[in-house]
Structures are given as structure tokens and as C-alpha cells.
């Protein structure tokens, strides 16, 4: 899809406190979530006037919802941690 390889997020604005996001990571393709990408997306949404400063913003990802709050100084993220794979490596 991206011959030069890229990490990117695709975002749909649902309302002033809800965003829908999908994640594409170079080397992996589409992934279920990305915490740093979700934080960056929420900050960009606030700075562009789509969401409000210092309020909970729900980011809906394929792996589950994350709640992001950008205060202007800090970014806080809350959400579930889910095991999606288990394996063993023989050394």
C-alpha cells in the first residue's frame, strides 16, 4: 500500500469528544491500536479546534476504545490492556 513504508493514522471526527481511528504501521500493516498515535491524534484534534482542551476524548480503535485527555501541558491515556497473542521462542 505504501511502497516507501510509513506509520500513519486515518481519523474520522465523530463529534467534539469522539474520534474513530485506524492505524497503519510500516512493516506490520494495519494494527489494532497505537497509543502514541492516539495521543498525537487527540492533541492534533484539539489544536485544530475539533475537540476541546482538558476534556476526555474517546478514540475508537479496532482493538478497543482509548480515552485521551490533553491539558495543554500533558497528555493522559487510559484504556484496556488485552492479550492478543501468546507464543514461545526456543533458544
Write structural notes for this entry.
By secondary structure, the chain is mainly beta. The N and C termini lie far apart (35 Å). The mean pLDDT is 95. The protein has one helix spanning 35-47; strands at 8-15, 18-25, 29-31, 56-61, 64-70, 75-78.
List the helices and strands and how they pair.
Elements: E1 8-15, E2 18-25, E3 29-31, H1 35-47, E4 56-61, E5 64-70, E6 75-78
Low-confidence stretches: none
Q: Which architecture per CATH?
A: Roll
The percentage helix is 10-25%
Can you count the helices?
1
User: Which range does the strand content fall in?
Assistant: 35-45%
Q: Tell me, briefly, the overall form.
A: globular
* C-alpha-based Rg, rounded: 15 Å
Alpha-beta content class: mainly beta
Q: What's the name of the CATH homologous superfamily?
A: Diaminopimelate Epimerase, Chain A, domain 1
End-to-end CA span:
35 Å
Order of helices and strands: EEEHEEE
In the CATH hierarchy, the third-tier topology is known as Diaminopimelate Epimerase, Chain A, domain 1
Q: If you average the pLDDT, what whole number results? A: 95
Amino acid at each position: 500500500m505504501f511502497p516507501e513504508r510509513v506509520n500513519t493514522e486515518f481519523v474520522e471526527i465523530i463529534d467534539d469528544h469522539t474520534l474513530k481511528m485506524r492505524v497503519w504501521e510500516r512493516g506490520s500493516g494495519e494494527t489494532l491500536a497505537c497509543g502514541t498515535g492516539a495521543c498525537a491524534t487527540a492533541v492534533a484534534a484539539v489544536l485544530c479546534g475539533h475537540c476541546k482542551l482538558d476534556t476526555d476524548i474517546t478514540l475508537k480503535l479496532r482493538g478497543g476504545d482509548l480515552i485521551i485527555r490533553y491539558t495543554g501541558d500533558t497528555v493522559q491515556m487510559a484504556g484496556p490492556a488485552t492479550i492478543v497473542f501468546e507464543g514461545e521462542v526456543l533458544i
